[in-house]
Amino acid sequence: MNKKLLTLLLLSFLSVAAMAQDEEEEKGFKASRVFVGSGFNLGFSNGFIIGLNPEFGYSINQVIDAGIAMNLTYVTQRYQSVNITARYLALGGGPFLRIWPIPQLFIGGQFEYNKISYSEKTDAGIINKANATAPSLLVGLGYGTRNIGRGQFYTSIMIDAMKDFNSPYRDQYGRILPVFRTGFSFYLGRKKE
């Protein structure tokens, strides 16, 4: 990833976080700010991508959500020049951060470390099997609703900003595959009406 872009993203996250600290809010842990949910990935790029992303998080303030997400993604892709289908299953997880600069729009980042089971198949059967690991840094934008203490629903598009060839978010030629994710969550300590 370009170091200037990474620095710009980091500075943007920090400036929004600093602005959020100026808000008048009650201090301390609030059960009504803990949320659980899941996201779903779906994509088509010379093949098929489907994934599930359970998450557990906390709304730190009116602007920032942070937490841990898991990743289970299945990908199948056809090579363009030969009759080979590549399939892999990625399992991983890591921290995420969402910054909501305005109520319906967020900037998101999620680091993942994935364990990958990979195979290549022709009409004659499996010709190659391998296991790999790969880090990913998903960054992007999303649109949704966020009602702290009640629930969230969002749709986002992200890309893997790291250049690991084994990333589940790159095709067999190393090209970036966009990650389309729709998710929902509910708060555990819901506010009473």
Task: Report a brief summary of the structure.
With 193 residues, the protein is mainly β. Helices cover 10% and strands 60% of the residues.
Rounded mean pLDDT is: 83
- In CATH, the topology is named Porin
Kindly estimate the percentage of residues that lie in beta strands according to DSSP.
over 45%
Amino-to-carboxy terminus distance:
46 Å
pLDDT < 50 runs, ≥5 residues:
16-24
The helix content, as a percent range, equals: under 10%
* Helical segment count: 1
- Computed structural class: mainly beta
Broad CATH class: Mainly Beta
Number of domains: 1
Q: What is the spatial order of strands in the main beta sheet?
A: 1-2-3-4-5-6-7-8
Order of helices and strands: HEEEEEEEE
Biggest β-sheet, characterized? 8 strands, antiparallel, barrel
Total count of strands: 8
CATH architecture name: Beta Barrel
The coarse silhouette is elongated
* Radius of gyration (Å): 19 Å
Compile the SSE list and pairings:
Layout: H1 3-21, E1 34-43, E2 47-59, E3 64-78, E4 85-102, E5 105-122, E6 125-147, E7 151-160, E8 179-187
Description:
This protein is mainly beta and 193 residues long. It has one domain (34-187): Porin. It contains one helix and eight strands; from the N terminus they run αββββββββ. An eight-stranded antiparallel β-barrel has the order 1-2-3-4-5-6-7-8. Residues 16-24 have low confidence and may be disordered.
